[in-house]
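Need a sequence for this fold. Nothing fancy.
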């Protein structure tokens, strides 16, 4: 009987944990949400996963990437960027490190730790510093330099 009561008490906790794991990325507040989005974005870019990368970008960033890639479509632009990456640059994007994000009033900047030997990764991103913005309480990559 006691074991049944414990099991019933634990079920709501397990339900909350399992539901939170499947949540939409980038909803965490402040720097925590920014830290969550950056590796998802850089991995999607390295893998040419247009739907994922574009879903993590603001409309302005999608348009800037398409312009930079000389393309009309964000999805195709992500594939184009990924196709130009050498293996080392793609690996650098998949494993990118970052400094602490600077967050202020729904905007954030984060400096990625890439060096000159990872120029392909830097070219893919357009910069080592990314700007993010909160849209509907979710962080999005907002500035993709026209470079």
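Here you go.
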């Amino acid at each position: 009987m006691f074991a049944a009561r414990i099991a019933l008490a634990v079920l709501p906790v397990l339900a909350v944990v399992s539901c939170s794991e499947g949540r939409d990325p980038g909803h965490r507040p402040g720097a925590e949400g920014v830290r969550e989005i950056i590796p998802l974005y850089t991995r999607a870019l390295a893998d040419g996963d247009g739907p994922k990368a574009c879903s993590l970008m603001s409309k302005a960033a999608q348009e800037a990437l398409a312009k930079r890639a000389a393309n009309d479509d964000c999805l195709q632009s992500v594939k184009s960027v990924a196709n130009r990456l050498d293996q080392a640059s793609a690996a650098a994007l998949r494993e990118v490190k970052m400094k602490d994000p600077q967050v202020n009033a729904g905007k954030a900047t984060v400096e990625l730790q890439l060096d000159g030997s990872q120029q392909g990764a830097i070219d893919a991103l357009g910069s080592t510093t990314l700007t993010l913005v909160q849209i509907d309480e979710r962080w999005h990559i907002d500035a993709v330099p026209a470079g």
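For context: Residues 48 and 82 are 5 Å apart (CA to CA).
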